[in-house]
Predict the 3D structure of the following.
Amino acid sequence: MIKPFVTGFGSITTKPTVLVKINTDQGLVAWGESAALPFPNYKSETVDTCMLVIKQYISPLILNRKISDATEINNILKVIKGNNLAKAGVETAAWMIDSIIKNQSLSELLGGARTKIKVGESIGIKNSITETVEEINLRLSQGFHRIKIKIRPGWDLELIKQIRKNYPNISLMVDANSSYTLGDLQLLKKLDLYDLDMIEQPLGDDDIIDHASLQKQLTTPICLDESILSVEDARKAIDIGACKIINIKPGRVGGLLESKRIHDLCKKKGIKTWVGGMLESGVGRVFNASVASLPGCSYPADMSPISFYYTDSITDNDFDVDNKGYVMVPKTVNSIIVNQTKIKKYTTDKIIIN
Ligand code: OSB
Ligand code: MG
């Protein structure tokens, strides 16, 4: 990474990822991504657990089997509990195979309604408020549609106060990555006064009960990220009033089918959604942008350009943000252009399963 991405759960200084390449007996090839982090501080999975789970548990279930489509893969993988990022790597690649066979873009297959999506910047924890304000300035001038600020205890109220002073009207939100508890209620109530679009995942990464109690005491909508691993989690969170918004990350929920299910449920229940990110490579961004094209994904997606984060890219089509803050939704069937030279250069571990 060009510089560390600092969040409430810790600092990300390098970003390995797991790429999954599926070859079918008909000679079709497609890529997917398990966009895990190097350390289990966001959720429990890491790049290493993904490698192990794909090799040891997922592959034997699908290898050399006649499989009709990605939905069937999703079904087969249900016997494995958890490990959603690992599953998503394989499931997304399977969707790309479907897209090739059916000659339809992923967005079309999912029922997407947009040709381009709005993007917002996710700004990590900086050394100073001045530095943060400078970055906001830059991103607004580049056309980004909203600003998300990473917060944690001690890097919250004063920061937001200063940002609002500088920018009274911008679309602004915060993401706490589970770094508060109900014991911080007074502080969270003060944040409630700054007209934020939402507060993302203030409390425990596996909690909905305390979030429900918090939501009752705040006007600002709570958006859940870490707590939502499936459409069932979404249903329960909505039913008890734990959130008013849900961040859909295809990786965190095990792939595109579950993303679509969460989207559909939220749309039915009047819960707003948007697509988050896990600092994906150009591979994962294609899937995220396709989900973000769904009609219910109304808030801007987290999808900062690869050039902001990384010294180099492993794909030739990065779906970069244009100068109006939009990313084009991939409209062709094989929109991922993996750069073979770069893949060779950066590969540190490779498992061939056949
Ligand atoms: O909480 O949304 C998060 C990155 C890694 C892990 C968790 C999160 C994030 C981000 C960056 O906020 C989103 C992006 O990919 O642009
Ligand atoms: Mg988040």
